[in-house]
């Protein structure tokens, strides 16, 4: 078994604007350390894990993700699971695969092919319609924060008039770490709302995600109501939070690297590479957690059973052992898979949808806006840990005729 490592203070100050130098220091000292890259200063002592470790190298993060037997996701039952109920996020083994196979029916490739022209592109263009005549916009407030919510609500088949109510409840649920009582209330309200939507589809089937989940069947088994509405509530943090942040990160990075932005404007084939490099360089969620079910060893470090592991995706994606010039944003670099969508049995189910949404968002912006310039007054920047996204993306532009 590996040797213990020197403890690192759990309350080390974290630079929310740029945590990457801290990640690099930890990574250079070893792939795993005892301590955290999260801020535990506001967490009561009694609620802090006794044994807390962090995986920071690509190899360590990849190992933790892929060894679901030793490092499981049960920890989510006592965090976000309190608000959204039991979901595949915290399931392991046979129950996980059974539920994943059932709900994956809602994300089949032919659905994605239909959603792009029928839902995603019209939603994105509709948002651009709302600000294009002004010649200026905040692409966070007016665009990236809005389009995933509108897309998800349409994919679920929710009535358009319900969107303001749905958005408000979704934001309240996502903000469970800030106001947990309000998050519980939003969770209950969403459960009642989704149950009503489920019943409607049982009597009149529809071609949307809720309809697919209601009718999905494998070996004669259907999803329970609880499994359906818990999955639907999981879509809110998974489908809204990360997509709005990752698309905002990409737009900010391109606009602050003008040569690369102009290259994408000139050659749309580069959008795919830009999306992957944006996800690598500024992943929307830098850190997730796993629970060690037994004593083990990672990168030569002994980890006791019962430990909580911070899995630092943001650090892994900048590991210089895997990428040359890992701390540089470069859409032209050789494509090597990042780990922003996790790995192993809990790989993100919505990764193809997220990529498609971001591609369509960038394509529509470039089609309809020209001479896009970032307004640097006010110091817009990418901020946060573990969730990262721009504080704002104020731009000026000239409207184009295309739509």
UniProtKB/TrEMBL annotation:
EC identifiers of the protein:
1.14.-.-
Looking up Pfam families in the UniProt record yields: p450 (PF00067)
Q: What class of enzyme is it?
A: oxidoreductase
What domain of life?
Bacteria
Which keywords does this chain's UniProt record carry?
Heme, Iron, Metal-binding, Monooxygenase, Oxidoreductase
Question: Would I find Heme among this entry's keywords?
Answer: yes
Give the GO molecular function terms: heme binding; iron ion binding; monooxygenase activity; oxidoreductase activity, acting on paired donors, with incorporation or reduction of molecular oxygen
CDD domains attached to this UniProt entry: P450_pinF1-like
User: What InterPro entries does this protein map onto?
Assistant: Cyt_P450, Cyt_P450_B, Cyt_P450_sf
Q: Keyword Heme on this protein?
A: yes
Similarity field:
Belongs to the cytochrome P450 family.
Protein name as annotated: Cytochrome P450 YjiB
Source lineage: Bacteria, Bacillati, Actinomycetota, Actinomycetes, Mycobacteriales
């Amino acid at each position: 078994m590996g040797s213990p490592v020197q403890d690192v203070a759990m309350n080390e100050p974290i630079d929310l604007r740029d945590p990457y130098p801290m990640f690099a220091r930890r990574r250079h000292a070893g792939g795993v350390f005892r301590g955290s890259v999260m801020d535990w200063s506001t967490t009561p002592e009694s609620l802090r894990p006794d044994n807390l470790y962090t995986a920071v190298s690509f190899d360590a993060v990849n190992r933790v993700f892929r060894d679901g037997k030793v490092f499981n996701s049960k920890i989510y039952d006592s965090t976000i699971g309190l608000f959204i109920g039991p979901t595949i996020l915290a399931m392991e083994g046979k129950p996980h695969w059974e539920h994943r196979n059932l709900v994956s029916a809602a994300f089949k490739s032919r659905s994605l092919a239909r959603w792009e022209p029928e839902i995603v592109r019209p939603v994105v263009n509709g948002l651009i319609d709302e600000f294009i005549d002004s010649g200026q916009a905040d692409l966070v407030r007016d665009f990236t924060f809005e389009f995933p919510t509108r897309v998800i609500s349409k994919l679920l088949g929710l009535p358009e008039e319900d969107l303001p109510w749905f958005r408000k409840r979704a934001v309240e649920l996502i903000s469970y770490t800030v106001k947990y009582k309000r998050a519980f209330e939003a969770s209950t309200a969403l459960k009642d709302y989704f149950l009503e939507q489920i019943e409607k589809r049982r009597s009149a089937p529809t071609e949307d995600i809720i309809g697919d989940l209601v009718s999905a069947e494998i070996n004669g088994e259907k999803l329970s109501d609880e499994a359906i509405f818990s999955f639907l509530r999981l879509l809110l943090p998974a489908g809204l939070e990360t997509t709005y942040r990752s698309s905002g990160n990409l737009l900010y990075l391109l606009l602050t690297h003008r040569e690369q932005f102009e290259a994408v404007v000139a050659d749309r084939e580069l959008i795919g590479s830009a999306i992957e490099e944006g996800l690598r360089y500024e992943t929307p969620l830098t850190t997730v957690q796993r629970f060690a079910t037994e004593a083990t060893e990672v990168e030569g470090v002994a980890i006791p059973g019962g430990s909580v592991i911070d899995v630092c995706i943001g650090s892994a994606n900048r590991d210089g052992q895997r990428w040359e010039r890992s701390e540089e944003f470069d859409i032209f670099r050789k494509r090597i898979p990042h780990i922003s969508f996790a790995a192993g049995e809990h790989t993100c189910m919505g990764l193809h949808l997220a990529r498609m949404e971001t591609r369509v968002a960038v394509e529509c912006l470039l089609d309809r806006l020209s001479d896009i310039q970032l307004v640097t007054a006010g110091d817009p920047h990418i901020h946060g840990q573990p969730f990262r996204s721009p504080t704002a993306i104020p731009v000026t532009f000239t409207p184009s005729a295309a739509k």
